[in-house]
């Protein structure tokens, strides 16, 4: 019986003294921040975002004082409910990003908030990587990877966290910090925690004294197993620190908080070869898996199985090869990989594998490749199965993803058993079987409708019978997704009474009150696995397909300010659910809050679309809502009707501000307007880097000696303003482009009446005005280019993207693309010593044209760095002035990144973004044309 007092009100009040404005008790953020990738829906009482270990220690102490159970959350990509909470949820993500390469790449120290793929990016120069390689590596944090003992497609049991851990830094419930890489920390722990040490060593002693139990533990970990605590740590190691190091792996945050990890890295073997084989039946594929597994890791390092439903699901994707679309019904595939330090060995391995599998009948000819571009496309199919299948499910259904593991000799029978359960419980439709078959590890998806009592009962019965039958095989109920809530009631079923009692004692040693992540791993509730299941309300078709996996979050500029794309979609579902239940008061509260959290602070950059396996463009939510009732439609019409006057007024406004700047400093103006914006929410913020007025007169630049022509549409922002203040070149962008074209012998033609033209982006919420603006510009460009005879260049990437999408019949170039293709070939370029950081504007990234600006920078200097701290700066045109907190949140790490590189200049192709970049970064950001003009002269 729990003795916890659960004083959430006191906790929330006192937590604000620790984390200030990062404590959330409103329904909107409690729900949004409580969403994870699992099939469970829990609403935390309080959510706190911790930024460092010191805060975590204080929060742990406060939770104990208030008797409030608490759960740690990393990326929320876990699938089994291990980071869901109905109590206090402590999110440890953005403040825990430090990494340090150790021993020339042989080890990596990283805090728990580091994304797995970012860790590997840091290790690339050393030709090494971390061992675990889950399919979620691009979004999962190492804290979650370690706490779930996630393995992956290639690492198996040989290179998972258990095998590659060097040390951890952990905060225990009493606030003790144990850093197992620090001799002094270890000595202090041994001195101050003798009872804990003795109890853990006593467990080891009892296990070793029981031959049957010792044998069971050794046997169970010959295959992947993440069911319950890592009992193998108690038999594999005798030193208490080694035991603790490994006991925390896969503990799912139920024993303490792991703030830092040191991984022994593994070599990224240079030569790889893959095979994609298609078998007539799933049974034939499983026979091939057994054969591959028996060849050993020196021949095969990975083998992924995909049943027919998996292949069918991915057939609709654009990048899927045609042969996948043409496989006969019933076909199942195996994707395997071999690798070595020599190409010759890879050749030999591929030949050996072909020969060994030649007697298993195939449906279509098998494919083999050592071309990374080709086999990476095959792996992309495998990695996308889970979300793709989720996206194709019936409306209103929830994706359930389970993973089990069999001894390899039982693999074929195990597959037959799962198929039988699909039919028995009516989950054939939407059910798929795939997974890391080389390890005997199988994932499967089912898509029940939890608003349907029959589906709900079938789900519960399937999980229970599956647990019974997998346990009967001597398999693992969980192989890498973690125990969580999903199989917590069945840990004893798999392990037996004696081993389960060891699990309970481990929990009691570290958390006797079960205050830490209750009902995960250890539970007294036999039905917890089928409670609080997500009921998926049907919303717009474009977003209903979202399965809340969280892949989209990494690049979202508002992720640390308000909401992520996943959370925006989840809130729409929650609002719909409340309305369906008749709770219109709370639904109305969420809709009101959504105006700021879901609409105003969405940059509409669509960076989420590029990360989403289903290409969901969450920006369309905000864009569509902005069009519903846009402010002052008559004013928008009047502005466009008098566009040249509007720009003159903008220039005058900047000039007036400049006059003020002669009396008080620009920095003071910025501070004043920041305060006003904070009070009114309407008054625009004036950044310190706000540019001066541009009064340069545009006229055609044509010489009889020139041999090419270009139509140059200079956008309204660049016609109104000069570049970012702080740069030593005071020319307008038009003057610089004219200078470059003059060197390259290219005539410039400006569209007639350019002062009245706009690409329409500023009016996209006003359909009538937008349509006029696009048509007027299209007609002007068509005329200037003599019906498309001449190429067109646009000098702001956001406007280029807009025109590019709406005018497909014209050859329109972004400024960087134009300079690379048309200008650079006619220049002599001499590199300078400038250390340049490159901003790739989000809209050109979405069009796969971002390489041009980097290429230009590299032509001008040997010291070029790409911004890595964000994907979109969140300035988003006018939002930099009216929602400046979005830009500031997105670019908060830019100054540190610039300092790390020693960058002296930033280049971009978006003059509005340059304003925010310059202010946040502390160095001038200018159009890349300025750098090119400075470093070039006409070719002799």
From TrEMBL:
The keyword Iron applies. It holds the Pfam family Fer4_8. Keywords: FAD, Flavoprotein, Iron, Iron-sulfur, Metal-binding, Oxidoreductase, Transit peptide. Its cofactor is FAD. It comes from Veillonella dispar ATCC 17748. PROSITE patterns: 4FE4S_FER_1 (PS00198), 4FE4S_FER_2 (PS51379), FAD_PCMH (PS51387). One of its GO terms (molecular function) is iron-sulfur cluster binding. This is D-lactate dehydrogenase (cytochrome). Residues 40-268 form the FAD-binding PCMH-type domain.
């Amino acid at each position: 019986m729990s003795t916890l007092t659960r004083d959430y009100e006191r906790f929330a009040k006192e937590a604000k003294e620790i984390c200030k404005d990062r404590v959330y008790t409103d329904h909107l953020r409690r729900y949004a921040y409580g969403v994870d990738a699992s099939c469970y829906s829990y609403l935390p009482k309080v959510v706190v975002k911790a930024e460092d270990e010191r805060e975590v220690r204080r929060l742990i102490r406060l939770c104990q004082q208030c008797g409030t159970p608490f759960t740690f959350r990393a990326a929320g990509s876990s699938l089994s409910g291990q980071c869901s909470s109905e109590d206090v949820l402590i999110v440890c993500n953005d403040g825990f990003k430090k990494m340090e390469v150790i021993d020339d790449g042989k080890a990596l120290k990283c805090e728990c908030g580091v994304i797995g793929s970012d860790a590997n990016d840091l290790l690339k120069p050393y030709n090494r990587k971390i061992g675990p390689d889950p399919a979620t590596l691009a979004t999962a944090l190492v804290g979650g990877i370690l706490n779930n003992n996630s393995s992956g497609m290639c690492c198996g049991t040989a290179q998972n966290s258990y095998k590659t851990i060097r040390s951890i830094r952990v905060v225990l419930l009493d606030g003790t910090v144990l850093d197992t890489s620090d001799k002094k920390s270890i000595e202090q722990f041994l001195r101050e925690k003798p009872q804990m040490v003795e109890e853990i060593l006593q467990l080891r002693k009892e296990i070793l004294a029981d031959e049957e139990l010792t044998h069971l533990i050794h046997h169970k970990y010959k295959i992947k197993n993440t069911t319950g605590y890592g009992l193998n740590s108690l038999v594999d190691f005798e030193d208490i620190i080694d035991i603790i190091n490994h006991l925390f792996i896969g503990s799912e945050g139920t024993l303490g908080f792991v703030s830092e990890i040191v991984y022994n890295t593994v070599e990224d073997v240079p030569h790889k070869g893959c095979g994609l084989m298609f078998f007539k039946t799933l049974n034939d594929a499983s026979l091939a898996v057994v054969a591959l597994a028996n060849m050993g890791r020196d021949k095969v390092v990975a083998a992924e199985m995909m049943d027919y439903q998996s292949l069918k699901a991915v057939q609709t994707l654009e990048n899927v090869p045609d042969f996948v679309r043409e496989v006969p019904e019933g076909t199942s595939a195996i994707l395997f990989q071999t690798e070595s330090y020599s190409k010759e060995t890879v050749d030999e391995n591929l030949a050996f594998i072909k020969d060994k599998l030649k007697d298993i009948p195939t449906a279509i000819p098998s494919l083999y490749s050592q071309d990374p571009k080709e086999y990476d496309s095959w792996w992309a199919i495998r990695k996308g199965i889970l979300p793709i299948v989720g996206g194709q499910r019936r409306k209103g259904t929830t994706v359930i993803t389970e993973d089990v593991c069999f001894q390899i000799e039982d693999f074929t029978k195990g597959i037959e058993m799962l198929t039988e359960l699909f039919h028995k419980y009516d989950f054939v439709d939407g059910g798929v079987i795939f997974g890391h078959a080389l390890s005997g590890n199988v994932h499967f998806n089912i898509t029940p409708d939890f608003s349907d009592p029959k589906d709900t009962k079938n789900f519960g019965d399937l999980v229970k019978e599956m647990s019974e039958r997998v346990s009967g095989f001597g398999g693992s109920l969980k192989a890498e997704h973690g125990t969580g809530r999903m199989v917590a009631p069945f840990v004893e079923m798999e392990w037996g009474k004696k081993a389960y009692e060891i699990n309970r004692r481990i929990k009691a040693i570290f958390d006797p009150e079960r205050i830490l992540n209750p009902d995960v791993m250890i539970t007294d509730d036999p039905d917890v696995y089928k409670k609080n299941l997500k009921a998926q309300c049907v919303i717009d078709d474009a977003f209903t397909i979202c399965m809340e996996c969280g892949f989209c979050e990494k690049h979202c500029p508002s992720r640390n300010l308000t909401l992520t794309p996943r959370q925006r979609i989840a809130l729409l579902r929650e609002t719909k659910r409340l309305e369906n239940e008749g709770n219109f008061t709370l639904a109305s509260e969420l809709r009101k809050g959504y105006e700021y959290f879901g609409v105003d602070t969405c940059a509409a950059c669509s960076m989420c679309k590029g990360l989403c396996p289903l290409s969901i463009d969450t920006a369309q939510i905000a864009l569509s809502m902005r069009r519903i009732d846009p402010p002052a439609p008559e004013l928008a019409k009047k502005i466009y009707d008098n566009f040249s006057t509007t720009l003159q007024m903008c220039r005058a406004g900047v000039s007036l501000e400049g006059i003020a700047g002669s009396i008080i400093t620009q920095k003071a103006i910025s501070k004043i307007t920041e305060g006003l914006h904070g009070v009114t929410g309407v008054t625009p913020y004036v950044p310190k880097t706000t540019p001066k007025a541009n009064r340069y007169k545009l006229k055609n630049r044509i010489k009889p000696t020139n041999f090419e022509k270009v139509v140059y549409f200079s956008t309204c922002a660049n016609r109104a303003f000069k570049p970012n203040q702080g740069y030593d070149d005071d020319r307008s962008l038009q003057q610089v482009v004219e200078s470059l074209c003059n060197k390259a012998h290219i005539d410039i033609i400006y569209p007639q009446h350019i002062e009245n033209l706009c690409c329409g982006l500023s009016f996209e919420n006003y359909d009538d005005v937008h349509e006029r603006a696009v048509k007027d510009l299209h007609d002007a460009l068509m005329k200037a280019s003599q019906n498309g005879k001449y190429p067109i260049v646009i000098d702001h990437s956001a406007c280029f993207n807009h025109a590019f999408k709406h005018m497909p019949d014209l050859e329109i170039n972004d400024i960087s693309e134009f300079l690379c293709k048309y200008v650079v070939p006619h220049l002599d370029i001499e590199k300078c010593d400038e250390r340049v950081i490159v901003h790739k504007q989000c809209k050109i990234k979405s069009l796969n044209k971002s390489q041009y600006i980097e290429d230009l920078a590299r032509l001008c200097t040997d010291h070029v760095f790409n911004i890595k701290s964000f994907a979109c700066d969140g300035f988003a045109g006018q939002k930099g002035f009216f929602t400046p907190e979005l830009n500031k949140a997105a670019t908060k790490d830019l100054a540190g990144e610039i300092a790390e590189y020693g960058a002296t200049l930033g280049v971009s192709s978006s003059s509005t973004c340059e304003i925010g970049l310059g202010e946040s970064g502390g160095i001038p950001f200018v159009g890349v044309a300025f750098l090119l003009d400075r470093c070039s002269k006409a070719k002799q």
